[in-house]
Design brief:
- The protein is of the alpha/beta class.
- The longest helix is centred in the middle third of the chain and has 13 residues, at 125-137.
- Helix 5 links the parallel strand 10 and strand 11.
- The chain contains 7 helices and 18 strands.
- Helices cover 18% and strands 33% of the residues.
């Protein structure tokens, strides 16, 4: 279950904004205003794809001041588990679906004297709302945005025009232009906060560089929603109800529980928030931790698992559910 109320929305607009990237605008079916959100927030979009119900998190990229609708941008991924293909290939203007109320696991730190954003690819989306919010309050920010090619990069022209090339720097892999993270990070005023969103390797590299330069951990912020990887099927035994449920190869534990009509908590569905952390009672196999939330010692203990992205290699696991 989500910890907030879901809303029925209608697809008000769909626009191709770059190679393999589409923007979707949702407005409430009942005509009411959208709940307020802050830059960095996301929603979970529920998509009925035939017999399968898919729930994926997407960052809100529209202006936080726009209560008439929410906008997300989605990259069509070739090896997608189905969510991006559904949105790109099946969803049409006028269709209805369900979204959660917004949750912010990637908020801006209001103590920051300057906000430094580094984005890679579709990782630009949370920064769109952040920059809109900061521009209206007159706060200092700077964006460094890496794209694979100019046609693959969404919104870079619009961002340059709106905020100016002094605050928006574009880097293109195809042109051998890469973000000089080390040089940028060592030339920031005291009180700057760093925010990184993009591919895993980029996030890891930028944060590692910042730590090597002595950036305090409280000034470092990142967001990455992970997709549950496939694996061999296994059974989940629920200690409190004595039920046994099969988790299929391309299914997360959370998805298997939901398909069986069992309500389980979640917020991000991407291994980042900790809401679905579950105690392991027993496991006849090896835990495969795919989250970025649990500490190394928690993963090594074998007593905890994030059911939205992690699984096991083995026949069965018993959970405290």
């Amino acid at each position: 279950m989500t910890l907030n109320t879901e809303m029925r929305v209608r697809v008000a607009d769909i626009k191709q904004v770059a190679d393999h990237v589409k923007r979707f605008r949702f407005e409430r079916v009942d005509g009411k205003p959208m709940p307020v959100f802050s830059g960095g927030a996301h929603v979970v979009v529920a998509m009925r794809d035939g017999a399968v119900l898919r729930r994926n998190p997407y960052s809100l990229m529209s202006s936080p001041e726009d209560k008439s609708g929410y906008e997300i941008s989605v990259l069509r991924v070739e090896n997608s588990r189905g969510g991006s293909h559904f949105l790109h290939d099946k969803l049409k203007k006028g269709d209805e679906l369900t979204v959660s109320q917004p949750v912010n696991l990637f908020p801006m730190d209001q103590r920051g004297r300057k906000h430094l954003f580094m984005a890679g690819g579709i990782g630009i989306t949370p920064f769109m709302a952040m920059m809109d919010q900061l521009s209206k309050t007159g706060e200092h920010f700077e964006l460094h945005y890496a794209v694979r090619t100019r046609t693959h990069g969404a919104y870079w022209k619009d961002l340059e025009q709106r905020y100016g090339k002094s605050r928006v720097k574009i880097y293109c892999d195809a042109e051998n232009l890469f973000i000089p993270a080390k040089a940028i990070l060592e030339n920031q005023p005291l009180g700057t906060h760093l925010y990184v969103c993009g591919p895993h390797g980029m996030i890891k590299g930028v944060l590692s560089t910042a730590r090597e330069q002595g950036w305090p951990s409280q000034n470092l912020h990142s967001e990455e929603f992970l997709a549950p990887p496939p694996g061999k099927p296994f059974n989940v035994k629920l200690a409190k109800t004595n039920k046994t449920i099969e988790v299929h190869s391309h299914q997360s534990i959370l998805e298997a529980l939901e398909a069986a009509g069992i309500d389980a908590p979640y917020l991000c569905r991407g291994g980042a928030c900790g809401q679905c952390e579950t105690n392991v009672v027993a496991c006849s196999g090896k835990l495969e931790h795919n989250d970025i939330f649990l500490e190394p010692e928690d993963k090594a203990s074998g007593k905890k698992i994030m059911i939205c992205v992690s699984r096991i290699s083995g026949p069965d696991i018993t959970l405290d559910l």
